[in-house]
Amino acid sequence: MAHPRRQAGAGLRGHVEDETGQSMILIIGYVVIALLAISAMLAATSVNLEARRLQSVADGVADAAANGAALGGGAVRLSDSSVRARSETHLGRTNASARFQALNLAGARASADGGTAYVVLEAQVDPPIVGWFVPSGIPIRVEADARSAMNQ
User: Fold this and answer.
1) Contact 91, 105 (CB under 8 A)
2) Any transmembrane segments, and where (predicted)?
């Protein structure tokens, strides 16, 4: 009769041999998860950087629209049409559409008192790694405003 410990050890050895290769599947799974996390972080960083760049352009557009206003009755008075026209002129002059994909002046208006210009810009961002996990053409939208200043 066989020793009881040997029988238990033989069964254990058979169990260990059945699990060879299982750790490789686990490692591959962890690598896939890590790559997905890295691609998501790259996409988020890319979208954030493009949004900051677009915000800078929107600030410049709002400033150009507010401070290029015509004087009326000793006070600076903005209108919706003048804010839109000056915004479009500034965007064309700076060639901003070449730096952003699908750039759109979504809104340009003046405040009720005519002293502030409000501008809304929209664009799209293509992250560096695009696939089924990270889509292409992520929309971004920024808003900016600027008060007109009269220098004497």
Assistant:
1) yes
2) 24-44
